[in-house]
Amino acid sequence: MLKIKGINEPPQEEDGFRILIDEFWPENLSKEEAKVDLWLKEITTTEDLDKWPENDSLFEEIEAKDRDELRQKKTIIKIIRDNEKEKGTVTFLCSTIKSITQLEF
């Protein structure tokens, strides 16, 4: 299972393998607090999601575009899938997401 969650949400055991997908490390958050297993700056979103209202329907378009870009990065996808097989769940962490959403690849 793949999930996405805000980096400021408390880590939970069911997060499985935790991957930070922000370009920059979040301010005022230590590596110990974040409990990040891997930092993949390469899959940072291409749009500035901070400018989008939280419930804006255009978010789905951005999410679809990001999924298309991810599909093109086969090595990164392999890393993610291998960890999903091993841990059961991979949770993507970013500062622009405030709640859990399931992604389908």
Q: Would you list the SSEs in sequence order as H and E?
A: EEHEHHEE
The largest sheet, given as strand count, sense and whether it forms a barrel, is: 5 strands, mixed
Number of helices: 3
Q: Which of globular, elongated, flat, extended, rod-shaped describes the shape?
A: globular
Oligomer: single chain
Structural class: alpha/beta
The CA-CA distance between the termini, in Å, is: 10 Å
User: What is the mean predicted local confidence, pLDDT?
Assistant: 79
Strand content: 15-25%
Supply the number of structural domains. 1
Segments where pLDDT lies below 50 for 5+ residues? 99-105
Helix content: 25-40%
Secondary structure: number of strands = 5
Radius of gyration, CA atoms, in whole angstroms = 13 Å
Biggest sheet strand order reads 3-2-4-1-5
